User: What shape does this take?
Amino acid sequence: MGWSLSTHAVVLQRKVTLMANSEPTRRQFLHLGAAAGAAALGGCIVSSPGAAGAGAPKPKKSGEEAKPNDRPNILFIAIDDLRHDCGCWGHPMVRTPNIDRLASRGTRFDRSYCQYPVCNPSRSSFLTGLRPDTTQVLGNRTPLRSKLPDVVTLPQLFRQNGYFTARLGKIFHGKFDDARSWDVSTDFRSTPTGQKGEGRNLTGGRLRWCAWRAADGRDEDQPDGQLAAGAIRLLEQDRDRPFFIGLGFHKPHDPFVAPKRYFDLYPLLRMQPPETPPDATPASEPAFSRGFAQAFATFTDRDRREFMRAYYACTTFMDTQLGNVLDALDRFGLAESTVIVFLSDHGYHLGERGWWNKNTLFEHSCRSPLIVRAPGIGMPGQATQRLVEFVDIYPTLGELCGLPTPEGLEGRSFVPLLREPDRPWKQAAFTQVERGTFAGYTVRTQRWRYTEWDGGKQGVELYDHDSDPGEWHNLAEEPARASVRAHLSGHLHTYAHRKG
Assistant: This one.
């Protein structure tokens, strides 16, 4: 039996050969069903051949291995560019009832940090359990396997251990999807109707990405709406074996496009862009990209309000799609057998220090949302103030599912925090970025953020979160803080110069 699928200029052909008078296998049925669903919604599905991980290093056992039928499902939800402007983190205006619902059922991490606040480096890190200097993925143009050809990724680990693995949307960065990780991969694109609507570029075209559109059509005319619908079908089809399903919602990533009804929730005059205090210490020279900063400096008050409104409209649009998936999980009786991980690949600035993007070493960029629901572990609705890093997610899921994990993982399972959210834990979290020929590293402790650019040659920053949570006042040159600076500098240098 041969078949082909063509939608919105996306063409995929896959031939499945069956013996005469035989029924398709369950996996073939799933592939065909998922593909048909993707076709109906403007998606393109790719099925990965064969077993994954040939030539990969032999993993070691991590605790007692569970039998396949005893292992929970995994729903891994990765959001793009989401900051903590959600109801469950105390935002008074942004409507996120479904993120809030998930937080009320699981554990909310209030101090979780990515290891590199840019899409590809961050995802390459948390999907391998390795830090950016180990993956050597330090920008959006480097494929993970060009640096680590034999690495066992997080979904690949589950695939190797008998799970059905599927990706809908963006899990790895864009075009760098990983065939060894998935049984099924699906991408989506907006319909012609969804590409229409009112909008404009906020920089007059100088920054192509810096644009919004209040789109015509329904939620399903946008990729994230199609993704949610495809996920629901996939959840319904795959209830009889363990699964690892990755859902990569694109919004609120730019360009800021969502159906018009979500823009209508946020009147322009209610938007309140942040103001820089008059006594704020100037940021270090490498803190921001000069080209972007020059464009942002031309923003009018209306531009800033429109940017904020569009970002919040996209946030609520994404939240609605999340709610559709959570409803389906309940409806199909999967909620109590499924571990849910909800995260954003990094944080985001919405005008703090005049910056409207990511890729900084300030709190708004490094701190990133994380919620984990592990049924039967911990109290529903609990929160932890303890520091965790995204590199910890890989070993955590390995422990929760009793899977053997590769040697050399650089994170620490936070399963103990799910059980006791107030217990003593990590003392520091690390994040880094590249600036041309040199790097910036930052360390976050319970109280302090300390940053060095080019080993301190291009700038040093120290912020006291007890008195200055907005990181407006750099204390690095204050004599009274010399011992704090020296202590944190030692931690940072140990991290930046560690081996392997």
